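Case study: Aminoglycoside phosphotransferase domain-containing protein.
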Amino acid sequence: MFPSAINRKPKSLAEAIESEDNELASMRYPDLARQLYDAIGCQKTELEHMICKLLRVQTCRIVPSNLWASGSFNAAILVRLPQGKNAYLRLPFGHRIGEGPFPGNADEKIQTETATYMWLQEHCPDVPIPTFTICTPFHPPYPTLPSEFLLTSEAQGKRLDRSWHKHHDDENRRKTLFRGLSRITVSMNAIPQPRIGALRLQDDDTIALNNRPLNLYMHMLENEGVSSGIPRGRMYAEVDGYLSDLLSVQEAKLRGQPNAIFDVDGQRQLAACAGMRAVMHHFVDPGTRDGPFYLTLNDLIQSNIFVDEQWNVTSIMDLEWTHTLPAEMQSPPYWLTSKSVDGFYEQKDREEFDEAVKEYLTVYEEEEVRRGGSGRLAEVQRRAWDSGSFWFFRAATVPKAMYNLFNWHIQPLFNEAHPDQSVFDEVFFFYWGRRASEFVDDKVRERKEYVQQLSEVYRDMGIVE
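Here is what the predicted structure looks like once written out:
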């Protein structure tokens, strides 16, 4: 048994061709992850010595490599400590976040996450996070690994995703969970921030709000050598510029990914991009476009939430991608009814999610009032849900979901017939940019070349169908 980042079963050629990901890049990930694990293994003794010094313990032991874990963007190395305690050594996968083409991305990821932990420890002690978080400097006398890394205590409780499907219909557990999540957000919202951006650890061990509002899609795009167009030092004093740049990230993906456009779907994608820009002003509240903004946990999925048997939140982990947002973009989790963010096509699924959102916001408002607030931010989120802004902000943020969200949830607000007709796509895609038609033709040819390269690689690997 090996970490999932290494033990990845290859897709069939047909699956690879149909995939929306760049499989020429992703098929290299297991070997690159193995290189990182080998580097860790070669320095196991030095790492254990370093951990003992940092935690001021007499002994520690890094478990055998077959017990190591990983997520999409990090390796997680379990460390046994005295008295039955555990810690995790977390390192970013440089090959997943663009460290090669954009040096410094790994440090950006670690330093922004570390700053979030430090800020919460100082300003929101009621938010349940690991009891210690240490960011190791990337210089001697520490072991020579590819980047800085985090050392965190083990989370208390069990991961929510392990009991979600069994108990998500239990109203008591669900409301307990909603209350715990609401308390976290309300606590963090007690301290408004002046701009949209991410906190970052500075060289003097202080923290500052001076980094771009980093999300996983920026690093995923940069990982393929395509600039996101958002430099690390860029922050935003108003919402419109931020949303415009998020849409530019999606357009950069269309330009830079070799298999981004299959065929005539190119017209649909470009029309959706142009449509998003055309209607953006309908979804931005003029009263809050200049702030205030609030530090927001943008990766709060079930696997990062730890709970007890009754679903009281006992800890949250993996605070990567945290940055400030306006209250209207602090939406309830999309996974409340176990659907993907673009999984709400059927009316019954939308109605079920609507009920869950209303239940969540009711609990959120109760918590906001309980802490001495007026319920104002709950009302802001409620307006965002009722107006359709919830779907617009999700579409602007998640490239893979943008077209479906625009087609199913945004277009019908302006013309109910257009989602089922081609007339909108055939006309509006021209307004994405000059030479839009030629761009689609070029991308279709580029994808054919990509498929040919992919087929040759599979042949060379001996994978035939």
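For the exam, be able to explain this: The chain has two domains: 13-154, 163-194+258-317+326-436.
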